[in-house]
Design brief:
single chain; about 325 residues; alpha/beta; Rossmann fold; seven-stranded parallel sheet; three-stranded mixed sheet; 14 strands; about 40% helix; globular; binds uridine-5'-diphosphate
Length: about 325
């Protein structure tokens, strides 16, 4: 069961699982996801805090593992409305875990984040980096990781938490991609400006302690993320110990570098203004992801920024209004 399977990351993972012969379906309330994003996969509409329904669906469909993507994911919004974030990300995950116990489902792959680390205390962050989030979004994911460890200890839950850096790009065939409303992520905004569906772009701060003063992030292709989820389930099936893995590119790009690379890919000028810093943003987040490679056998196939931008651009050009249901 792919909870949040109609969302951006969930839909790519759902498709990847099905392309690898796994009988996966989406469970989604479509509050932010899109029915069209699941393509030909079954979509069960439902709420994550509807425990009775979750138990019934898991039993009916003989669910063996749950992939959990259904969450609110905007750092800036989480600072302004933490209540919604603790409710959507922590309280509902508790219901989901509790429903899994009742239905006898014991394998859980969790969509976590590098935001659980907070400000880096070392240049490349591996999984042993201290977890000291600096925004409510990061705290919500950190709290779930703690719940997972406790559920494993007390009830024998088997889990993997995948700490993503910045998910980006789209399936290369352009049928599914990123469509948030409102959109706050850098790459889709940059491409919407290139496309002319958005007037301009605000760069949030150019006074960070980075070479060009703008924030540095580690962008990872959505299909590389999807593959890691499947490998994480295989790893647990082989008897691997419950644990967390970073998933990133290992390379950092500043906001200005992303804009310049997007201009090269699209052939369009991308006008921008420099604005104030966005609350909750660390200057630099770059992952050290060797562990996922060594333990899960994960190998990135779409690693470079150009490919990420090309596949995202492909999606945006084919779907200037996204899925068209927002
Ligand atoms: N950013 C920006 N302008 C925008 C959106 C994002 O300058 O309109 C910056 C943001 O401050 C961060 C980086 O781009 O440094 C990536 O932000 P995004 O929201 O894509 O992902 P996050 O790192 O917050 O998960």
């Amino acid at each position: 069961m792919v909870a949040g399977g109609a969302g951006y990351i969930g839909s790519h993972c759902l498709r990847h699982l099905r392309e690898h012969g796994i009988d996966a379906f989406a469970y989604d309330n479509l509050s932010e996801g899109h029915a069209a994003a699941v393509l030909d996969a079954p979509l069960v509409e439902g709420e994550l805090d509807d425990r009775a329904r979750l138990v019934a669906v898991m039993k009916e469909r003989n669910v063996r593992a749950v992939f959990h993507f259904a969450a609110s994911c905007y750092v800036g919004v989480s600072v302004k409305d933490p209540e919604a974030y603790y409710r959507n990300n922590v309280a509902t995950t508790l219901e989901l875990l509790s429903a899994m116990r009742e239905a006898g489902v014991n394998t859980f792959i969790f969509s976590s984040t590098c935001a659980t680390y907070g400000n880096p205390v070392q240049e490349f962050m591996d999984e042993t980096h201290p977890q000291q989030p600096i925004n409510p979004y990061g705290w919500t994911k950190f709290m779930v990781e703690k719940m997972l460890a406790d559920f494993a200890h007390a009830y024998g839950l088997k889990w993997v938490a995948l700490r993503y850096f910045n998910a980006a790009g789209a399936h290369p065939d352009g049928r599914i991609g990123e469509d948030h409303d409102p959109e706050t992520h850098l790459i889709p905004i940059v491409l919407q400006v290139a496309q002319g569906t958005r007037d301009g772009l605000m760069v949030y701060g150019d006074d960070y302690a980075t070479p060009d003063g703008t924030c540095i992030r580690d962008y990872i292709h959505i299909l590389d993320l999807a593959e890691a989820h499947r490998l994480a389930m295989d790893y647990l099936d082989r008897g691997g110990a419950s644990t967390a893995f970073n998933l990133g590119n290992g390379a950092g790009y500043s906001v200005l570098e992303v804009i310049k690379a997007a201009e090269a890919v699209t052939g369009c000028k991308i006008p921008f203004k420099i604005g104030p810093r966005r609350e909750g943003d660390p200057a630099r987040l770059v992952g050290q992801c060797r562990r996922a490679q060594d333990v899960l056998g994960w190998k990135q196939k779409f690693g470079d920024l150009k490919t990420i931008l090309e596949t995202a651009w492909n999606w945006h050009r084919a779907h200037p209004k996204g899925y068209g249901d927002s």
